[in-house]
């Protein structure tokens, strides 16, 4: 049973670690880029009339939704492994 | 107060009291009182979480901040929203699996003992009360401005309502009041946003042009740097915002109100959708206020900008819409403070009364009675405090709450769940150092020490309004040092494995042997 549990934790780690690193970088790059490259962030982006600063700030919202959704999909698989562990323990 | 306002208010009060009456009949066990017996669906709980989280400060404050500061105001909302991913990824499911009613349960499932429970209870209690009092004070001012009711009457009405919801209806009533609030708030802001767009013939470019004319900042309105000119302060605030939610007891105890972890995830995902859409609409309202009213008119009514949304409603929809928006603001306040009352109540009556004083042996009936009396006491005392604090500026307590949550509760929760070597001494030193650091830093900071009207009229020792960037590492460091310097009581490897497995899968320890 411990093997299945190890498998669960490995799979969780394989998703969560990169996800968290991406999340922190994506989130903190916004204030950092505003602090260090204010000029560039005030340039109009490829969407006309929208500066990079606004685009990046807006992107945080779909980013949150997407990451939460990906986690939701992944978790269904985690839940299946948990069921597996429970079955093994009953044996 | 004219008749429209009065009818709206009465309507809300009557509706929420009907909910409470219905809930009271369903709150006859402790399980139902503290967690609605896990009976909510994920989506319902998601709405309730949003209702618990979006305070009047978010609704009115952020619209005003955007209207005054433009771009920077919007950044506040971003931090609030992204913080939910931290809760979802790291904290939510283990908390649901390990606890029954309170955060004390979660930590004590690894480090049982009265000391730990005291600390967790005091932490949850403090955070909830610190957050509740400024909300009550703000509500008093708000209702005075909006409806021309006396400060003390508004505080007593709101304090009374929140107490009634919790005392009689427990978590069931609180949840449904919060759900109703989310529905009303979202539909109200959506309606108002549509009206703003229709005023510009649905042409966003026109709206933006008009904004530039309405604000003294002109083109600069859409550029960053009007609210956060100090980079360190800016980063510090963003850090406290993104980590704070994961330590807020009143949000985390909502995770016990659903059946399983699938519903926990659904709750958080629906709340990120609601909160995200809500903040997009506050942006529209903020821009709309500047475009349609102009900066001067808004600041003339209230220099903090808190009245931006109501003023906008009056401008585009007359007295009726203003009454409607005021009623929404009122609902927003009562839903949030009710959530805080139940969180403080759980900390006191479940952790301190049931587990510490009665050593976990009180009966269902005694627990329920204790919980109701506690709720009554907490409601009464906070209302009294709010009445006394009319003349004192307490808004800094809101940012203090986030810092305390991020620097004491969050590190301890995170390390308890994930760090194998963590021990009880570390948990205690982490809580204490995080709590002490945030309090000391705020006292030494410009909120309290300010030559210009501060409680201590001197130059601030620490110039940060949001000392999160210092306090959060101190919390973690305290937890780490406490752990490595107290190697005398290691937890056995097997014990941790059992705990960790429970936190990750929900499988109860010892079930293998049975």
TrEMBL record, chain A:
<protein>
    <recommendedName>
        <fullName>DUF485 domain-containing protein</fullName>
    </recommendedName>
</protein>
<dbReference type="Pfam" id="PF04341">
    <property type="entry name" value="DUF485"/>
</dbReference>
<feature type="transmembrane region" description="Helical">
    <location>
        <begin position="15"/>
        <end position="37"/>
    </location>
</feature>
<dbReference type="InterPro" id="IPR007436">
    <property type="entry name" value="DUF485"/>
</dbReference>
<keyword id="KW-0472">Membrane</keyword>
<keyword id="KW-0812">Transmembrane</keyword>
<keyword id="KW-1133">Transmembrane helix</keyword>
<feature type="transmembrane region" description="Helical">
    <location>
        <begin position="49"/>
        <end position="71"/>
    </location>
</feature>
Automatic annotation (TrEMBL), chain B:
<feature type="transmembrane region" description="Helical">
    <location>
        <begin position="6"/>
        <end position="24"/>
    </location>
</feature>
<dbReference type="InterPro" id="IPR050277">
    <property type="entry name" value="Sodium:Solute_Symporter"/>
</dbReference>
<feature type="transmembrane region" description="Helical">
    <location>
        <begin position="370"/>
        <end position="389"/>
    </location>
</feature>
<feature type="transmembrane region" description="Helical">
    <location>
        <begin position="116"/>
        <end position="133"/>
    </location>
</feature>
<protein>
    <submittedName>
        <fullName>Cation acetate symporter</fullName>
    </submittedName>
</protein>
<dbReference type="GO" id="GO:0005886">
    <property type="term" value="C:plasma membrane"/>
</dbReference>
<feature type="transmembrane region" description="Helical">
    <location>
        <begin position="395"/>
        <end position="418"/>
    </location>
</feature>
<dbReference type="InterPro" id="IPR038377">
    <property type="entry name" value="Na/Glc_symporter_sf"/>
</dbReference>
<feature type="transmembrane region" description="Helical">
    <location>
        <begin position="153"/>
        <end position="176"/>
    </location>
</feature>
<dbReference type="InterPro" id="IPR001734">
    <property type="entry name" value="Na/solute_symporter"/>
</dbReference>
<comment type="similarity">
    <text>Belongs to the sodium:solute symporter (SSF) (TC 2.A.21) family.</text>
</comment>
<feature type="transmembrane region" description="Helical">
    <location>
        <begin position="234"/>
        <end position="256"/>
    </location>
</feature>
<dbReference type="Pfam" id="PF00474">
    <property type="entry name" value="SSF"/>
</dbReference>
<keyword id="KW-0472">Membrane</keyword>
<keyword id="KW-0813">Transport</keyword>
<feature type="transmembrane region" description="Helical">
    <location>
        <begin position="74"/>
        <end position="95"/>
    </location>
</feature>
<feature type="transmembrane region" description="Helical">
    <location>
        <begin position="425"/>
        <end position="448"/>
    </location>
</feature>
<feature type="transmembrane region" description="Helical">
    <location>
        <begin position="268"/>
        <end position="295"/>
    </location>
</feature>
<feature type="transmembrane region" description="Helical">
    <location>
        <begin position="320"/>
        <end position="349"/>
    </location>
</feature>
<dbReference type="GO" id="GO:0006847">
    <property type="term" value="P:plasma membrane acetate transport"/>
</dbReference>
<keyword id="KW-0769">Symport</keyword>
<feature type="transmembrane region" description="Helical">
    <location>
        <begin position="468"/>
        <end position="485"/>
    </location>
</feature>
